[in-house]
Amino acid sequence: MRQPGKNTMNANNYKAATAKIYYGVLCISILSIIGGFISAIAILSAVSGGSTWYVYVVPILTVIGYVYYFLGLGDLHKEFEGETSDNIKKIRTAVILNIVAALCSMIPVAGGIIGGILNLIAFILCIMAYGRLRNDANFPGRDGMKTLYTTAILQIIAAVLGIIPIINIIGAIIGIIAFIMFIVGWGKVKNANVDTVPVA
Q1: CA-to-CA distance for 196 and 49, rounded, in angstroms?
Q2: Which domain holds residue 79?
Q3: Would you say residue 28 lies in a domain?
Q4: Strand (E) positions, the chain?
Q5: CB neighbours of residue 33 within 10 Å
Q6: Which of 133, 33, 47 is nearest to 90 (CA)?
Q7: For the chain, what is the radius of gyration of the CA atoms?
Q8: Which of 59, 68, 116, 170 has the fewest CB atoms found within 10 Å of its own CB?
């Protein structure tokens, strides 16, 4: 059994879990960036096919990425105890909200509003979790969490600016930067230097 307060993390399990998270995040970020371009093209050219891709196909594929992300976080939190595990669970809760938000985005008007609110709550949860994990001596990927903390702040700014006419293009640009940092941050977590610690 695991002894309370003892770090029982296994390097191989950590690497496997964070790799799963990273590829889920990569899928989410690429689809979000592509979705933004498709939406812009559809609006500018009035191409209904582009709109269909953005409204239905991209959200469904994004949900698949979030599910993979969620499963990786589930594996990761099992490698830790106490506050470290609890903070990883907060990120999992945020992912659930992101999944519901992505599904809501397929509902005209109201779905976008509900999805936006859920995403904001998710970003706030992530700021709390990332903020604690970046200073957690038991967590190897602290540098990555510092990047992710900044990412979550940018995501909130992008979400707020995105609902304001005229300057919403600024929000879109910040959002793209945030998604790139999202990939970089989890990449740092995945590549963190980890020593194998036998399970007690």
Answers
A1: 50
A2: 11-190
A3: yes
A4: none
A5: 14
A6: 133
A7: 18
A8: 170
